[in-house]
Amino acid sequence: MKFTLTAAVAGALAIAATTASAGVVISQEVVNTSQAGKRSAMQTVMVQGRKQKIVQSNRETIIDLDAGVIYTLSPAIKHFVKTPLPPQGMMAAVMAREGVGVGYEKAAGTHKEGGYACQDYAGTGTAMDAKLDVTLCAASEAPGAKEYVDFQQALSDKLKGSKLERKGEVPDGIPVKSTTVYTQVPRPLPAKFDPKVAAQYEAHIAAANRNPPTTVTTVTKIEVKDLPADTFVVPKEFTEQHLQPAITMMPGGMLKRPIMPPSAPAGTAPASGAPAPM
User: 72, 85 in Cβ contact below 8 A?
Assistant: First the structure.
C-alpha cells in the first residue's frame, strides 16, 4: 500500500511537472481588408514560459523576456535583426501597429467563438498616424490559456515606462477572435500652410477613414505541447542585420527613413496585420 501511494504521488508530480513546462501553439487565420481588397494568411503563435514566437509567411518574431531581446527573422534570406526590449524607434512603431501596446477593458458581452466560451474586451492604441480600435473575445478555459496569459502579463511588465506601456488590463484568456480597425489621424499642419493643400489633405484623410483597413484574426486550432528549446533560438546559419538609425534629413529637405532588412524576395506578399494581441 505504501509503495502504491508513493508511486501515485510520484506519477502526479511527474504529470504536474510536464504540464508546467508545456507550451501552447495557436494557429490563426488573419484576414486583412482594405481599399486594395481582401487578403488572407495563416500564422502561428507559440508560447512557452517567458518566450514567444510568431511565425508568418515571410517573417518570424521571437521575444525572450529573460534575455530582454526581440529577434525578427527573415527565413527566406536567412537574416535577423536583434532589438532590445522594450524596443525603440522603428521596431517600437512596428509593434505598436501590431497592437502590442493596446490596453483592454472588459466589455459586457460573453459568447462562443470556435467552440470556446469567451469574454469580450475592447481597447484602443496609437501607431504613428493611425488609431487602433480593437475588440476581442478571450477564452480563459481554452487549452494553454494560463501559459498564454502569464506570458502576456510578463510582457506588459517589461513594457512599463516605454511607449508601448499598456494602460488597461491583459485579457484573461486566449483571444479566439479579434478585430482591429485602423483609422488615420491627421497630423497638425503649420499655421501658414497652403489652405488649398490643407483642404486636400483633410479630404484625403476623411476619404480613407470612410472605409478604414481592418484586420480580423481567428483561431483555428489550439494545442498544448512541450516545445523544443531551439524553437526560440535564432538558427546558426542566420546573419545579423542592423537597422538604420532614426529618420534623418537629407540635403534638399528630403526625409531619409530607416530601412528594415528585406523579409522576402521581391514579389512575395507579406502577411501583415495584427497578430493575436499580445
Answer: no
Q: Which residue shows C-alpha cell 533560438?
A: 233
Closest CA relative to residue 65, chosen from 80, 44, 84: 84
Residue ranges of the domains in the chain?
21-256
Under 8 Å between Cβ of 167 and 126: no
Q: How many CA atoms lie within 13 A of 145 on its CB side?
A: 19
Beta strands in 101-166 (DSSP E): 103-113, 116-127, 130-139
Residue 203 grid cell? 479630404
pLDDT in tens, 41-100: 999 999 999 999 999 999 999 999 999 999 999 999 999 999 999 988 888 888 888 888
Nearest alpha-carbon partner for 79 in 247, 265, 229: 265
Fold of 21-256: outer membrane lipoprotein receptor (LolB), chain A (2.50.20)
Q: Which long-range contacts (CB under 8 A, 24 or more apart) does 242-251 make?
A: 242/81, 243/81, 243/83, 243/89, 243/90, 243/91, 245/89, 246/89
What is the longest distance spanned by two Cα atoms in the chain? 90
Give the global pTM.
0.76
Dihedral sign computed on CA atoms, order 144, 25, 216, 96: positive
Nearest CA to 24 among 144, 137, 201? Answer: 144
E strand or H helix that includes residue 21: helix 2-21
Q: Are 104 and 122 in contact (CB under 8 A)?
A: yes
Measure the CA–CA gap between 70 and 94, rounded to whole angstroms: 12
Residues 6+ apart with CB under 8 A from 229: none
Rounded CA Rg of the chain:
21
